[in-house]
From TrEMBL:
Function, as annotated: Binds heme and transports it to the liver for breakdown and iron recovery, after which the free hemopexin returns to the circulation.
Family to which this protein belongs: Belongs to the hemopexin family.
Hemopexin repeats: 49-101, 102-147, 148-193, 210-253, 254-301
First-listed, main subcellular location of the protein, grouped into a coarse class: secreted
Protein's recorded name: Hemopexin
Taxonomic placement: Eukaryota, Metazoa, Chordata, Craniata, Vertebrata
An annotated GO cellular component: extracellular space
Gene3D superfamilies registered for this protein in UniProt: Hemopexin-like domain (2.110.10.10)
InterPro entries linked to this entry: Heme_transport/Cell_adhesion (IPR051298), Hemopexin (IPR016358), Hemopexin-like_dom (IPR000585), Hemopexin-like_dom_sf (IPR036375), Hemopexin-like_repeat (IPR018487)
Amino acid sequence: DYRSEMDAVAVNEEGIPYFFKGDHLFKGFHGHAEFSNKSFAELDDHHHLGHVDAAFHMHFEDNPDDHDRMFFFLDNKVFSFYKHKLEDGYPKDISEVFPGIPDHLDAAVECPHPECPNDSVIFFKGDEIYHFDLKSKAVEEKEFKSMPNCTSAFRFMEHYYCFHGHMFSKFDPKTGEVHGKYPKEARDYFMRCSKFSNSSDHVERERCSRVHLDAITSDDAGNIYAFRGHHYLHKDENDTLTSDTIDNDFKELHSEVDAAFSYENHLYLIKNNNLYVYQVGEPHTHLDGYPKPVKEELGIEGPIDAAFVCEDHHIAHIIKGNHMYDVELKVTPRKAGNERPIGPFKRVDTAMCGPGGVKVIIGNHFYHFDSTKLLSTARSLPEQHKVSLELFGCDH
C-alpha cells in the first residue's frame, strides 16, 4: 500500500493532512500521489529530496513569524513554509531553530497549550522523546514506555497518533500512555486503498472507504450526497453511484465540508463559520451572495458537527458537540433554540434524515432513530449498521 509506512505526516493551514512517503506527497485521506517538490519546490533546491524525516504544523500564537507554518526536517536542516512558500532565511540548521534537538529525526508533532502545559513540539528519534517548549526553548527528555518507536506522528482533531509500519497508536502527548485497543491498522482508519490501485475509479474507493464521513444529506428527490475529505459520493433515486472531487462540483468549498442539509431544492453546506448554498441540479449552482456567516444565517456559531432537515418540516436540526438545537427556517432572523443533549452520544461525525427517520453516523457505523424526539431522549445505543454496506452497497 502506497501510504502504509509514512516518513512524515502534518496538517496544512486548512487542516488537511499531508502524508509524505519517499519523494511523494498525498494530500488528504484520498489524495493522489504527487511529487513533494511540486508543492514545496525549495525542498529540492536545497537538498535532493529522497524523503522527509519529520514534519509538523506550528501552533505558537505568541510568535506570528512561526505560527501556522509547516516545518520540515531533512537530515540536519529545517525548512519553514507558509502556504507552500519557503520563509526567508530557511533552511536553517535544526540546532539553530530548536537547540537541544538532534539531527536525523524520525517524527515530530505540535502540542499546543492546554494539551501540553505550554505550546510545545514533541520530537522522536529512536526511543528518545524530546518535549521542546517553544517559548523558553527548554528541552525535556521523556520516556514513553507504552509506545512503540514512531516513524511519523501527527495531531488531528486534538488527538495524537504515532505511526509505526502499517499500524498506529493513539497516545497522550504528556505521558505517552496508550489507552484502548492499540495498535490498529492505519489503512482501516486513515486511508483506504488496499484493494484499489491509483487507476481505480473514485466510486469504488469512496463507497468502500471506512474513513469517517464529514457530512451527508438526502434531498426531496431521494438523492444522497456524502462528503469525505476532498471527494463526495452521489447516490441518485435509482441507487446509481457517482463520485467526484468537491473542488470539481462545488469549487467554492474546495474540500472538507463540516455539515450539510437539504431544504427546498437547495443544498446547504457548512464549512468552518460559513454557509454555502447550492441549487440542486447539474451543474450545482452556487447562489449569489454566499457564503454568508453561519451565525447570521442560522443563529448559531460555527463550527458545526452535523445538520439535517426532516421531510415536510421547516426546522434544521443542528448538532454541535453533544447538543442539538432547532432552527426554524421560515422565520427571520433565524435563531437556534430548544437546546438538548443528543441522546447517548458524546459526539457525532454527521447525520441525515429521510422517510424512515434519522441516521446518526460515527466512523463507519450508523444508528437509526424513528424520530428526532427518540434520538434526543434515547438512553442507550440502538443496533449498529455499516455505512459502506447498507448505505453504499459495498460488501467487502
